[in-house]
Amino acid sequence: MSEPILKVSNIETYYGPIMAIRGVSFEVAEGSIVTILGANGAGKTTVLKTVSGVMDPQKGTVVFQGREIQRMDPDKVMRLGMSHVPEGREVFPFLSVRENLRMGAYIRKDPDGVAQDLEAVFGYFPVLKERADQRAGSLSGGEQQMLSISRALMARPKMMLLDEPSLGLSPKLVKDIFDIIVRINRERGVTILLVEQNANMALNTADYGYVLEVGRIVMADTCARLREKEDIKEFYLGIKEEGARGTRRWKKKKTWR
Ligand SMILES: Nc1ncnc2c1ncn2[C@@H]1O[C@H](COP(=O)(O)OP(=O)(O)O)[C@@H](O)[C@H]1O
Ligand SMILES: [Mg+2]
How far is the CA of 116 from the centre of ligand 2 (A)? Predict the structure, then answer.
């Protein structure tokens, strides 16, 4: 097998004295969609921030395309081809949709390519084209999530980190957004690392999955096999009791250690 595009080894990340990530290792194969699942507070956001350079790990390495990037400036990581779509869809509320998208492309020096990609994101999310001249702050939550993903795409990344794109959206919108995530992966060859509480949706979208609990990976397998594990469904993902719709929060789980 070829080298993974991303290899994270034994990272430990702290908030002051508190260790939030307690020795986490995982890999992402080039061209794949990988998910990290976990309850609220498990450490998903902290893992993504550590990978993209927003936070520095105390220990461990993050290797992206064969190069160590831990403790690198996030702007530099982005220039290497990794775009981070943060939790809570941070758009620039007072700029228009189009201006937000242009901001996503600020590192690029190929205006023709930027124009092409603008058309491409308008193809994925036609509503953004309709609202191109509106202020981003006037968009609905779902539209802001679309804009946040699109802005990251405007950098023409090799890899995207997505932090809970489903949070707070209706089941229909969640499905639409996940369909587009799959298309971005298949059509544009963008490798995707997706963190989610919405286990059902993520397990149906990703190729490989890790389960994170209190700062540690407690399970790793193909999503096909993770979907089959009754114990995950019952004790961890809370799918069995609550039906299979897929937007609920996780119920409190058993300890796996
Ligand atoms: N700014 C912060 N200061 C102190 N602790 C934090 C901060 N942000 C997150 N934490 C703690 O770190 C742990 C992991 O948080 P986070 O990565 O946000 O989890 P998740 O994204 O899975 O919900 C939690 O225990 C959380 O309370
Ligand atoms: Mg989070």
Answer: 32
Domains belonging to the chain, first-starting first, are: 6-88+157-235 (3.40.50.300)
Choosing from 14, 15, 166 the residue with most ligand 1 atoms within 8 A of its CB, the one to mutate for a pocket test is: 15
CA 160 / ligand 2 centre spacing (Å): 16
pLDDT score for 254? 43
* Ligand 1 and 45: CB distance under 6 A: yes
Predicted TM-score (pTM) of the model is 0.90
Ligand nearest to the CA of 212: 1
Identify the pLDDT of residue 168. 87
CA–CA dist 73, 164 (Å, integer): 23
CB–CB of 7/221 below 8 Å? no
